[in-house]
Amino acid sequence: xxxxxxxxxxxxxxxxxxxxxxxxxxxxxxxxxxxxxxxxxxxxxxxxxxxxxxxxxxxxxxxxxxxxxxxxxxxxxxxxxxxxxxxxxxxxxxxxxxxxxxxxxxxxxxxxxxxxxxxxxxxxxxxxxxxxxxxxxxxxxxxxxxxxxxxxxxxxxxxxxxxxxxxxxxxxxxxxxxxxxxxxxxxxxxxxxxxxxxxxxxxxxxxxxxxxxxxxxxxxxxxxxxxxxxxxxxxxxxxxxxxxxxxxxxxxxxxxxxxxxxxxxxxxxxxxxxxxxxxxxxxxxxxxxxxxxxxxxxxxxxxxxxxxxxxxxxxxxxxxxxxxxxxxxxxxxxxxxxxxxxxxxxxxxxxxxxxxxxxxxxxxxxxxxxxxxxxxxxxxxxxxxxxxxxxxxxxxxxxxxxxxxxxx
Length: 408
Fold this sequence. Notes:
Elements: H1 2-25, E1 28-29, E2 37-44, H2 54-69, E3 77-84, H3 89-102, E4 107-109, H4 114-127, E5 131-134, E6 150-152, H5 157-171, E7 177-182, H6 185-198, H7 202-205, E8 206-212, H8 220-228, E9 233-237, H9 240-252, E10 258-261, H10 268-275, H11 277-280, E11 284-287, H12 301-313, H13 322-341, E12 344-345, H14 347-354, E13 383-389, E14 394-402
Parallel strand pairs: 1-12, 2-3, 2-4, 4-5, 5-6, 7-8, 7-9, 9-10
Antiparallel strand pairs: 11-13, 13-14
Helix pairs in contact: 2-13, 3-4, 5-6, 9-10, 13-14
C-alpha cells in the first residue's frame, strides 16, 4: 500500500525535476548576465580633446533607461557601466580591463573613438569578450579573420571611398579627379578606397593627390596645386576644419569643380557654416541615415519616436545633433541583437547573433537601407545614398548604392 502511495508522488517529482532541468537547459549565461540583468561596459571621452563625443554615451545611457522602464530586454534590466577614457588609448586600456576583470561585464558596447578601440582590440579578442559596434571606421574593426570578437559600427573610410569611386565611374566617367587627404590612415583609406572604386580607370582619372598634416594651419597651397593640375572634380578626404578651409578657398579663387566630401565633413554647423553656406551649395556626399531636423521627416514614425525619447529621457540634449541620433541608432541595434539572443546570453551566442543580422533598420536608417551581417562579413554599413547640399540642408538623390565587393 505504501509503495502504491509513493509511486505517483515519485513520478510527479521526477516530472517536475525534468521540467526544471529542461527550463534551466534553455537558459545559458556567461559572466555579466543573469535572469535579471545584462551588464554592459563602455568607455567614452567625457573629458579631453574629444569630449564633444560624450553626448553619444549620454544618449545611450538615456536609451537604456527607457528600455529598463519598459521592462528591459526579455525581462532583464540593462546595466550600462560607463567610464571616462578622455580619448586616451592608455586610459582606455586601464578602464576596459576594469570593466572586464573587475565589473565582469558580458560585453563592451560602443567604445568611442578609433584610438581607444585599437588599444583594447587585441586584449578583448584574447579574452573572447565581444567588442560590439565599435565607434571607429578603420577596416580592422570589421575583420572576422583576425579579430572575430570585434565588430565595428561606422562604415570604414575605405568602403565609403570605394562607393564614391563607383559613383564617379558611372556619373562622371571623364572627370579629372583631384584628392585632398589627411596624411595618415584616415586619409589614406579614403584615397585607396576611391581608387579601388575607380578600378582600372584610377590612374587615368586621378590627376592630383595632395596630403596635409593634422597640424597644418591651412590647406590653401594644396588646393592651388590641385586646381593647377587640371582637376575638374575635387574630393576632400578630410576632417571638418580642413574641409571648411578647402570649400572656402575653392570659392575664393573662382574655381568651380564638382565638389565631393566625406561623410566626416558634412556637418552644417562645424563645416558648412564656417565655409559659407553659399560656397557649399552643390556639395556632394553620402549618408545612410536621416537628418533629424530635415522637414521631409517631420511625419516619420521613427523620427517622432526619437523626439519623444529625447523629450523624456534626455531633455538637455540637442535633438538636432547627429551625434545623438547616432547614439540612439546604435543602442537600438544592440537591443535588437540582445533580444534575438533570448535566454542564451553567452558571449559566443551574442557574436553569432551580431554577425547574422538580416534586414534590420533603425529609426534613422534611410528608406531602403538595412543592416545585414554574416560570419564572413562584419560590415554594418555598406549601403549609402548620395546627397547634395542645397544651400540650407542636405537632399538625398539617386538610388541606394552598395559596396558589393566581399571582404577578404
